[in-house]
Amino acid sequence: MKTYYKPESLTLNDELRKTVSDGKFIALPSGVTHYKEEGSGENYVVLVHGYATPLFIYDKVADALVKEGYHVFRYDLYGRGLSDRVRTEYTARFLAEQLREFVSATIPDKEFILVGTSMGGIVTTTYISLFDPPVKKLILLAPAGMRYRVPFAMRLAEKKGLGEILFALAKGRQERACAAEMLKSDAVVQEEYRKKFSYYAQFKGLRSSTLSSLRHTLLDFGSSLQGYESVGKKGFPVLLIWGTEDKTMPYYQSVEMVKIIPRAKLITYKGSGHIFLYDEGERTSADILDFIKN
Description:
about 290 residues; alpha/beta; 8 strands; about 45% helix
């Protein structure tokens, strides 16, 4: 029988954070944010994760970027990983404000490359729309935010009261399903992913934060569209990568995305799922590096 950390069993606080050796913490105006800074120099890349899995989703991509000489920053969105569980509505604007504060504190007034995966696509494009940062290139990996056929369970969870019950009933299945449903790697990689996810899921507030994000970011298609439309009017290059077997953000959304951002270069991964950047880190990194360098 496989052992996982007990979900929602620990409270994040300063004492606990003192025991963490992986990464750093920064007190931003909105809350304490956990992040990793890797590499050096002035070729900056900022990585923004998605709905539930924190910064470790970028382990393989970050390693590849650093080996090629890039200065890489990645952080945990509020409510995830080791960042604060802020008591508020987790709207795209709120999460984009965290990104603005983080960039201002770490690489103020510097040009940088921005990468967002899944819900991170909404966060990055909302950030661009609101604050017009000096982004050199934007990379979107299976981004959320396009209108699509929302699964029945998500529609139920959107309802106040019912969503709280459904998320509470999920208990420890959440982290196991997170890997089993989206990963297409072998059993060893899946188990590695589950263990990592379950470590972060043990901290209280993940369920309420992700439920709020579901209601106020993932399903707020009007706000998401504004962010993507804003990017469509900019001039910097955009790369879009999507897997044809993505069950979370179905591939057919890429058609509408390319209409909104016509200059986007679309790379299709036949047979790949939603989190190919973890499943297929080597291929994803190679395509990202090719886009950045050229």
